[in-house]
Amino acid sequence: MGGVRISIDLCEPARQQLKVKLEWTPRGRHQTWLMPIWTPGSYTVRDHAQHLHSLQFQQSGRAVSTKRVAPSHWTAELQTLDPVCLTYTLEARQLTVRTNHLDPDFASLCLPAVVMLIDGERWNPHHLQLSLPSGWFGHVPLAKVDDGYVANDFDQLVDAPVHAGPFHSRPFEVCGHPHELLTIGEPPMGWPSTFQADIEAVCEAACTLMGTPPPAGDRYQLVIQLLDQGYGGLEHDHSSVLQFSWEALTKKDGYRQLLQLIGHEYFHQWNVRRLRPGAYVPYRYDKAEISDGLWFAEGITSYFDLTLSLLAAKSDRQTFLDDLGKDISHVLLNPGCKIQSLADSSREAWLRLYKQTPANSLSQISYYRLGTVLSFCLDVQLRQSGSALAYVLRDLWQRFGRHGKGYEPTDLLKAVEAHNKSLAKVLPTWLEKTMAVPIHDCLNALGLQAVAIHSKHADVGMQLSKQKGRLLINKVNPDGPAEQAGLVPGDELIGAHDWRLRGLEHWQALLQGPKQIPVLYARRGRLSSTILKKKDPIVERWEISWDSGASSSQKELRDRWFSIV
User: Fold this and answer.
1) Smallest Cα–Cα separation from 57: which of 83, 35, 36, 39?
2) pLDDT band, residue 2 (cuts 50/70/90)
3) Which of these, 120, 208, 216, 359, has the minimum number of CB atoms within 10 Å of its CB?
4) What b/e sequence results for 280-301 when a residue is b if at least 16 CB atoms lie within 10 Å of its CB, and e otherwise?
5) Rounded to whole angstroms, how far apart are CA atoms 306 and 288?
6) The sheet that has 231-235: what strands, in order across it?
7) Residues 317, 555: contact at Cβ < 8 Å?
């Protein structure tokens, strides 16, 4: 058996440790290997090797000395070319879709955080075997061989998430292609009776939008981890892993948000996994690769995930407008839009999006949210010229995605130009300049309008939260009353108007008083005071409403836009 053989031992789940063994036959005496520093689909350096210990390298049963030449990179010198064995232990205590978790209930593994990349073996077959506790079953979206699984190469292996536990999957079907649904956990009230049918409808809507069957064919695994809290997902070629809160399902929009998340990750089969920015073809597991195409990868997908429920007849037009309005509102109210362009948001993803702090949260904008809004504007202006954003995406799929060929920014512009030359000329400005996306113009073209909804309370220019009995400032708005009063994130509010503050309700009550608020606060343990001067209520959110005076041409364009494809 050639290639690399990987064994992962999960038999002591209470220890929350993985025992990993890699075996291969070396092709040269100088051997090197590395642990990926990031997980594809999550653009930040995670240094998975920080969870590794007890590494040993052996040949013919004898220990071979290794040298750690970088935090995630090792080398060794061999005397012969006999088979070798690499073993190590990984702590598995991070329950996210991009890391590893093991406990007596189940295992959830993301293999870029588990398996070493052996130099010279990347494009050779990788064989995986799991050792499981009694009564557990393994679930891996790879081809089964004997008592394990086989991947064509390292990339295919680490793109396959591993789940194991005392549970089984159940089949569902998309456009005649068999898929697999694995739910880990169940809401206290149970899943809706239409749950599987709704999943199938949303996934088939994605196929309708792209005009093709699912690229994964007959092998796709949808994993939903139902938790007490959490939200997120990670896409793979033949699977997606989602985390969702059961409590969110009890809320008005919770179930629709779950269907949107499913649609988002499923749609990534086309956009991101196969239709991929050129910087990530192939992936570099040892370094951060900057791309200004992430807005297309995630913004386009986020826009269309809002449409899939409507296209699947699981939502209605007003609900779609409400959902789109939340993204538009976020963009219009975020001060980061005046500082960071959409292209820069993509380029700086490795440094900022996944590492938000009070210090940088007001100087950046998510390429998911702004990308959604730009995609909306693209769609509207394309429809004005008789086309649609879905058609541009289909063209890119045929030229690049179906062949696994990476695209460059110029390829995106050419694709838009083929449908609307004038739009292709202004698109670079939308991407590179701040506040350049024509949101209001595009809404008006559809006979819609953004309506400002003001807060019911006076503006104090800060956000508060109660943490361990203390009332802390989380965020201070630029040029707002709190900043002008000298308050900063991390300050603890002790009192106001000579009264002790014991919670957010006390603070809201005291806001009803005079315009000037004497505030007692603590900073690094030292007490101080200031005067906070309230301002008139500011815009709290924007909502999309129907323009009662819309013309027949606006209504006609709006109806075509609502058709999605």
Assistant:
1) 83
2) confident
3) 359
4) beebebeeeeebbbbbbbbbbb
5) 30
6) 170-174, 177-184, 221-227, 239-245, 231-235
7) no
* Encoded tokens for 140: 């891996």
User: Quick one: which of 437, 415, 410 has its CA closest to 426?
Assistant: 437
CB-CB neighbours of 228 under 10 Å: 8
pLDDT for the residue numbered 97: 97
**How many CB atoms sit inside 10 A of residue 104's CB?**
12
d(CA 34, CA 387): 47
The pairs formed by 129-134 with CB atoms below 8 angstroms and a separation of 24 or more are 129/5, 129/6, 129/7, 129/8, 130/7, 130/8, 130/10, 130/162, 130/164, 131/7, 131/8, 131/9, 131/10, 131/11, 132/10, 132/11, 132/164, 133/10, 133/11, 133/13
Other beta carbons within 10 angstroms of residue 386's beta carbon come to 10
Query: Could you give the CA distance from residue 112 to residue 40 in angstroms, rounded to a whole number?
Result: 8
The neighbouring-strand residues paired with 101 are: 93, 108
- Provide the token pair at 240: 């997606």
Which residue reads 């309700």 in tokens? 505
For residue 128, which of 103, 153, 107 has the smallest C-alpha distance? 153
- Distant-in-sequence, close-in-space partners of 17: CB < 8 Å, separation ≥ 6: 89, 90, 91, 92, 102
* Count of residues making up the chain: 565
Q: 57: part of which helix (H) or strand (E)? A: strand 52-59
CA distance 475 to 471: 12
Of 236, 199, 195, the C-alpha closest to 97 is: 236
How many Cβ atoms from other residues are within 10 Å of residue 109's Cβ? 24
Q: What's the Cα-to-Cα distance from 327 to each of 186, 370, 544, 557, rounded to whole Å?
A: 30, 8, 11, 21
Contact by Cβ (8 Å): 242, 201 = no
Query: Which one, of 395, 292, 300, lies nearest residue 348 by Cα?
Result: 292
N-to-C CA span, the chain? 48
457 contacts: CB under 8 Å, gap ≥ 6: 508, 511, 537
Q: Quick one: pLDDT at residue 522?
A: 98
pLDDT at 1: 63
Q: Residues 241-246: contacts with CB within 8 Å, 24+ apart?
A: 241/97, 241/108, 241/110, 241/161, 241/163, 241/265, 242/97, 243/95, 243/96, 243/97, 246/185, 246/187, 246/188
- pLDDT of 185-225, one tens digit each? 999 999 999 999 999 999 999 999 999 999 999 999 999 99
Contacts (Cβ under 8 Å, ≥6 apart) of 322: 543, 544
pTM over 0.90: yes
- Round to whole Å and give the CA distance between 506 and 496: 9
Residues 308, 313, 319, 320, Cα dihedral to 10°? 30
Token duo for residue 496: 């106001």
Q: Is the dihedral of CA 45, 46, 52, 58 positive or negative?
A: negative
